[in-house]
Amino acid sequence: MLAAVMDRYGPPDVVRVAEVARPRPRADEVLVRVRAAAVTSADSRIRGARFPAGFGVPARLAFGIVRPRRPTLGSSFAGVVEHVGSRVGDFAAGDEVCGMTGVKLGAHAEYVAVRADRLARKPAEVTHEEAAGLLFGGTTALFFLRDKAGVGPGTSVLVNGASGAVGTNAVQLARHFGATVTAVTSAANTELVTKLGADRVVDYADDGLGATSERFDAVLDVVGNLSIASGRRLLSAKGVLLLAVASLVDTIRARGNVVAGASPERVADFDLLLRLAADGEIVVVLDQIHDLEHIVDAHRRVDTGHKVGNIVVRP
Ligand SMILES: NC(=O)c1ccc[n+]([C@@H]2O[C@H](COP(=O)([O-])OP(=O)(O)OC[C@H]3O[C@@H](n4cnc5c(N)ncnc54)[C@H](OP(=O)(O)O)[C@@H]3O)[C@@H](O)[C@H]2O)c1
Predict the structure, then answer these.
(1) If pLDDT is split at 50, 70 and 90, which confidence band does 12 have?
(2) Which of 208, 242, 278, 291 is the most buried (most CB within 10 A)?
(3) Cβ-based neighbours of 262, under 8 Å, separated by 6 or more
(4) Rounded CA gap, 175 and 311, in Å?
């Protein structure tokens, strides 16, 4: 099969498309013919070995110290079941599914082998491209806003970095849960985040957050330019600071009303997000869709730090 592979860490062009062996699903796994896979900020971080301050060593222990242990990136994907392992009862060949592969990665390929309990059924109303784009940012936004801050009716939420993969989901989910949403983005994306449901937009090039005297019940930072101290200044008395990007030091120091860390990948969350997308409650913002052979262009776009929503490749 064809897969995007990389033999070393580095810029986008370390990735190339090559013929590799098709994965063989174990008894509890499903072999999926990938129709779409997201190229995410996490893929870009791993490829470039660029991690938040202090995470370089732990990340290299996970992904390969000198060179990538897993040559094919990609976690969030959608596709069609090709074959199921002997102990898999819930899925059959031909089923449309989507999921996330966690640290195993491997989704930037024609086929991926995934544990059956990491898969959700893809509703017909959601395209493969939308499903692949939705899961990465959607699960992160759900984890921080719903699970860690209890965002609900009457709460106020600030999303710093509102136009990326996590941000576009965060704005819509906060709104869906009944919150009032303030979005921080650039002028170019003001119209988009307003359409997604932001009640107020702050242009980070203008006054930015330093000038605001407002206080919020939840502050979600997906840019990485808030510290624990600067983020806390934006909180209401019951407010929670949610650092989706944090240094190792801030991650260790995060307690009480400060939350940092990695969001989990749960099928129940995939199902909820897919249902909301199928019902038109949230839309999946797709910036670019590339064929797998143009994956270097996809990585280049992600590396700008200015993608709008999601980038997807079609193997
Ligand atoms: N903790 C976790 O579990 C977890 C999970 C997923 C992601 N993350 C992290 O979250 C971060 C964001 O991920 P993502 O996939 O959403 O990134 P992304 O899609 O690449 O986000 C890019 C967006 O950030 C905006 N942006 C850039 N500079 C900004 C600024 N100063 N203020 C406000 N917005 C700004 C850009 O908007 P403009 O074009 O308008 O500048 C762009 O739309 C990454 O660092 C990723 O590693 C953490």
Answers:
(1) very high
(2) 242
(3) none
(4) 23
Taking CB atoms within 8 Å and a gap of at least 24, the contacts of 299-304 are: 299/12, 299/15, 299/39, 299/43, 299/44, 299/47, 300/12, 302/39, 302/40, 302/41, 302/43, 302/44, 303/11, 303/12, 303/44, 303/48
Q: Is 223 in the pocket of ligand 1 (CB under 6 A)?
A: yes
CA-based end-to-end distance of the chain = 10
Express each pLDDT in 258-282 by its tens digit.
999 999 999 999 999 999 999 999 9
Strand-pair partners of 159: 183, 220
Q: What are the strands, taking DSSP E only, across 7-95? A: 15-19, 29-38, 76-84
* CA dihedral (189, 138, 246, 150) positive or negative: positive
Domains of the chain by start residue, with CATH: 2-134+285-314 (3.90.180.10), 136-260 (3.40.50.720)
Q: What is the DSSP letter of 23?
A: P
Give pLDDT tens digits for 162-218: 999 999 999 999 999 999 999 999 999 999 999 999 999 999 988 667 777 899 999
Q: Is the CB of 139 under 6 A from ligand 1?
A: no
Q: Is 286 in the pocket of ligand 1 (CB under 6 A)?
A: no
Residue 223 Cα, ligand 1 centroid: separation in angstroms? 5
From the CA of 166, how far away is ligand 1's center (Å)? 7
- Ligand 1 mutation target, pool 73, 186, 209, most atoms within 8 A of CB: 186
Q: Are the beta carbons of 98 and 87 closer than 8 angstroms?
A: no
68 within ligand 1 shell (Cβ under 6 A): no
pLDDT digits (tens, 9 = 90+) for 139-175: 999 999 999 999 999 999 999 999 999 999 999 999 9
